[in-house]
């Protein structure tokens, strides 16, 4: 006998109504939007010079500084450790819709990935943020090829391909003129639904380099992503996203609130659930 059978009938009805209600709430929850994950990395081959406790201490100092400072600097920070010829330069940026809390957690997690820790030149991408470090001064430089993520059997509706690409190109030309060089836009494609675009440059770029960076990344990966329905492209100075659902958090100003709102929502839901259980 299940415990539900012990409830009087009205309570079973209440339970049923409440479950339906909370399922609807959960399905429409802002929290389904996105979760973080490791996308991959690019690094030059292991370097013997990185194999000393002193180098590790310097790298770790650099990483700690990125974790501590980027979230309070609106999601972007550059720093350096070591001196003279042994200098290492680091740069990090969080996606512009993240809360400071999510931004800090993302960078922290990136610094815990070990794959590139013997390299003096590395970029590590997570969905929510990326970290780049090098023994060369990398600030403000134009971009190198990075990576693209997509599902190679999930094709864009043929009717939407050209409109989608125009939308993405417009995104690339609009983003450099936005505050923090971060921008989201929605394209209504009628019966095929909506498309959500986002683009972002690192804030050490000039507006004109931001535009060049986005155009370059788009041109580099156009053959691969041009007919795909959901994709993102990541360089080490700019990134672009195109999805058929809203994958980013609702945000008010760049690098504000999104994730915190989501946390609040989860809290309210769990409070109301536990009230019901009483
Ligand atoms: C963002 O806000 C809009 C309008 O209030 C809502 O329809 C949408 O579900 C929200 N999306 C997310 C991911 O929070
Ligand atoms: C790294 O160290 C190993 C062992 O000491 C040595 O054989 C190798 O040549 C070194 N590599 C470089 C690039 O210096
Ligand atoms: C670093 O040192 C360890 C142990 O001394 C060795 O196994 C490893 O191959 C070295 N790595 C590099 C990149 O030199
Ligand atoms: C680590 O940093 C110190 C000073 O900040 C510097 O003197 C030293 O050369 C660096 N060591 C390595 C191995 O990069
Ligand atoms: C960071 O990693 C921890 C442990 O794997 C995980 O629970 C957490 O969700 C991650 N957070 C982010 C923002 O990546
Ligand atoms: C650093 O790595 C990137 C990507 O792998 C590469 O394009 C660049 O030339 C490298 N830079 C140096 C100084 O090795
Ligand atoms: C890729 O897209 C296809 C077609 O839409 C879908 O069936 C498949 O589950 C997707 N694969 C992944 C890993 O999401
Ligand atoms: C895309 O842009 C090109 C050039 O501006 C224009 O000729 C074409 O009609 C546009 N296509 C769509 C579907 O908007």
Automatic annotation (TrEMBL):
Residues 37-138, 142-247 form the Gnk2-homologous domain. The keyword Signal applies. CDD domains: Gnk2-like. Pfam families: Stress-antifung. Residues 1-33 form the signal peptide. Keywords: Signal. PANTHER family: CYSTEINE-RICH REPEAT SECRETORY PROTEIN (PTHR32099), OS03G0564600 PROTEIN (PTHR32099:SF30). This is Gnk2-homologous domain-containing protein. It comes from Populus tomentosa (Chinese white poplar).
